Amino acid sequence: MMKEGHAKVLAKERYYIIKAGLQTYRLDSFIRTIDKQKGSNKGAILSFVRGLRFSALLIYAIREILSGSNLTANWGHIIDEDGELCSRECDIIIHKKGHYSRWNGGNPDPIMDFRFILQQNAIVVISCKSFLEKSKIEQDYCTDMKRYVDQVWLFAECCGPKSVKIITEEAYNIGYNHFFHLYTWNKSTDTIEDAEKVWFDFVEKIELLKL
What is the C-alpha to C-alpha distance for residues 207 and 122, in angstroms, rounded to an integer? Predict the structure, then answer.
């Protein structure tokens, strides 16, 4: 159960801060007009950059939740037990503190901070998506990552209001352990529905990793 009182208020505050920044770029009429101009990225923020921002905001939140424990979260690769092969790129790795190597993180003001995490220290991998549909769920990614960690989670910024159950079932069938989303968005009506309870569930599951 989600803690009550200040713990719940602070978790709610974190949720709405993350959601507000991402949602603004999804609903703004100017941004949407540019996004619809197929075949040209001139003047638009690349989807990769927006996706990286989403995963970064989640990493900051996860680090805060895990503060005081021996766990943290980073963007990077997992190195297998033989030290030979790397996993696919991981949007988020929750792992025991420390890393095998670090790209650019030694800079006092890094632009990129990419970590290489030993397999025995990796706990959870979270795949982050922007607008998620059932057909966009990556089965190969989940299968490949299960070679490195037992827990692979899926987190979408948003999905359609009628897609939550379908995506959840498909994600579980494929092998993801959990599916989370920040909100639902009806493209036809621009209706947004918060997923505050889903966020609280996410926070609880992160908290349980500390035990």
Answer: 16
Residue 39 pLDDT greater than 60, yes or no: no
pLDDT digits (tens, 9 = 90+) for 77-117: 999 999 999 999 999 999 999 999 999 988 888 888 999 99
Q: Are strands 101-103 and 114-118 parallel, antiparallel or unpaired?
A: antiparallel
Residue showing tokens 């493209």: 187
CA distances from 26 to 12, 35, 97, 170, 181 (A): 21, 10, 34, 25, 15
pLDDT band per the 50, 70, 90 thresholds, residue 5: confident
What's the number of domains the chain is made of? 1
How would DSSP label each residue in 69-106?
SSEEEEEEEEEPTTS--B-S-EEEEEEES--SEEESTT
- Domain span including residue 192: 6-208
Rounded Cα gap, residues 92 and 81, in angstroms:
19
Q: Hey, is 160 helix, strand or coil? A: coil
Residue 1: inside a domain, yes or no? no
pLDDT at 140 > cutoff 80: yes
